[in-house]
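URGENT: need a sanity check before tomorrow's submission.

F., can you look over the FAD-dependent oxidoreductase record below? I want to be sure the sequence and structure line up before it goes out.
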Amino acid sequence: MSDTTSFDLIVVGGGPVGLSCGWQAAARGQRTLVMDRYGFFNERCGTSGAERHWRVQYTQEDLSRLTLEAVPLWRSLESRVERTLIHHIGSLWFGDTEVQTNEGQICETMRVMDRLDLPYEAMTAKEIERRYGFADLPSHYAGFLQPDGGVIDVRGTLAALYGLAQQHGCALHAGERALGIFPDADGVTIHTDRTTYRAAKVVLANGAGVNDLLGPLGASLDIRLYEMALVSLRRQQADIDFPFWFVFQQPTEEDTNLFYGFGRNPWSPSDLVRLGPVFEVNPLPDAESATGTPDPRHVERLSSWVGNHMPGLDPAPVQTSTCLAALPADPERQFYLGLMRDLVPHGEHLVVYSSGWGFKFVPLLGEICVDLALQGRTAHDISRLGPAISMEVEQ
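Structure tokens as predicted:
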């Protein structure tokens, strides 16, 4: 093994969580490598697109608490790079307040916000129409505006994390693919398509590709892959704009009947706004099956909903694309996060973060993964998110 390059920590996956791990580990003085098979800043996985929803409200109280714990880390990140990354344009949830969706449930989320003393304004359908330009909403629809919510600058965040990782001496290897990981009593050997490495600890933050590496060790995470449509529309009225919004509706026989949208991006000169359906249907067999072309029916469903309820937007798509979503099969969990201890041989040397809508937690997820790798524990409550739950291990 004399020709094997050694690191204290190797991170497989160079998306936002992988880069956050690389920066924070290197800043703690660890010899750190982050590798990404597609290259940094690629949009082949869940980091595609210009923005992500920022919110502090969840139906699950532990996730709301984690979001609040992420806030000072975001502020620190923004201060370090002298750039605003979270823009507080508000988070508007409305619709059928009792329906349980893959985003949560309105009534229970309001109760969580009450318990955590988070501010929000309850609103009726008529108030939502008057304030935000929606039209002809069902009369029983209601919801709330959480003023601290808004939008995250995805590409600005990636650039900030990459720059900080580089600044602290993290090795960043683009276009390098991990082929196999082999933990033992003293650490982990990683074979890639370039060479062999040795590390004391490894973080797997490679999204949908995590099972390619866990499978040979006798384990797999229960993940579903979906290619979701993204649609850009033009405003028809120059004086109209929106907070982030999400509409909760009863599912149809064909899909989940959920839609969301952003206002104009504060950092962009474009006058377009981006919207999408959240249809967890027709799962893909693997990430390589993604086409980059949205399902025409999903685009039509969104355009129809906009035409019926958003007169301030032209429902004809200006641009369309897709986002690859890797999500836990269990809708009650947001992601898999934790040590592989007792799940694979010598799993105490492996940390896993995979799947889910995790962008709002990025600096916190980096901190937690590095805590677990270096100390075997974290002060943050992630007990419900560990990979031992809903996991299959071959005996």
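My own read: The chain has a mean pLDDT of 93. The longest helix spans residues 61-81. If you see anything odd, call me.
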